[in-house]
Amino acid sequence: LAQGRGEGATVAALIEANGDFLLEALSRRLRHQPSGRSRVPLVMEALLSYAGATTLPLLADVVGELIDLADEAVGAADGESRAAPALLPCARAMCALVLAARDCQAADETAASGEGAAAPEGAAVAAAGVSSAVGAAESVGGLAVPGSGEGEGDEAGNELAAMFDSFWSEVAPAEARGGEPGGGEEAAAEGEGPEGQEEAAARREAEVREEEEEEERRNKPPMAPALALRVVQKVEMLLLCSPPSVAHVLLDALAAAIPLLQPWPRALLPALHKLWAPL
Fold first, then answer.
1. How many Å apart are CA 227 and CA 222, to the nearest integer?
2. Are the CB atoms for 142 and 152 separated by under 8 Å?
3. What pTM does this model have?
């Protein structure tokens, strides 16, 4: 099908273009067609293997059903000697989910680092433009900018320097200029009366609230690592009642999930602590 869509078409692109229809079919089969539930882990593994980072946001809605299906497979197992047929496909789908979460998070970090590198580059271009403007001013009409030497255009150079100072005073932040003239007196006046004290208290509360929100963001993993964390939290029970073939797949999922979740130790460590006994 992908080859029939034209040159350069891939399976991943075909899945991305039809992701909504695939998600609807999976959800319907999971919730309303019990006879087809056993095939869902196979489909999820295939989708995540072909286009994991692309399909992960769509499949995030059915991860809960996948974990419930693994619970049903464990309940259907006949003791420790024989596992339910759906248990190994569920484990493979969970491992594929963790690998897709790793790729998705790596893509997000690459995009974020690219955006962060664009800002210093833009600042360097602006600085180069100012330098070239100064150089042009020195060469046109014999103007001399203070600090660049003496010449016949000292008066014009002083005017040019004043123009640059005016421009800088408009665009530079208040912190770089040491505060606006009279800013310290106004701040002191605000803190004298009851209204100024209330405003200062409101500012402190807002700062504390922002710090708490930032701390929560640091401790709460984003979407892709959060899905991997759900797999880690489920592995404990599956390891205790799975045959070696399933346990090996689950250990592969753990090996990929732990480095992914390392930046969020408060979320990862409680889940890992429960794994000591089954390991």
1. 9
2. yes
3. 0.64
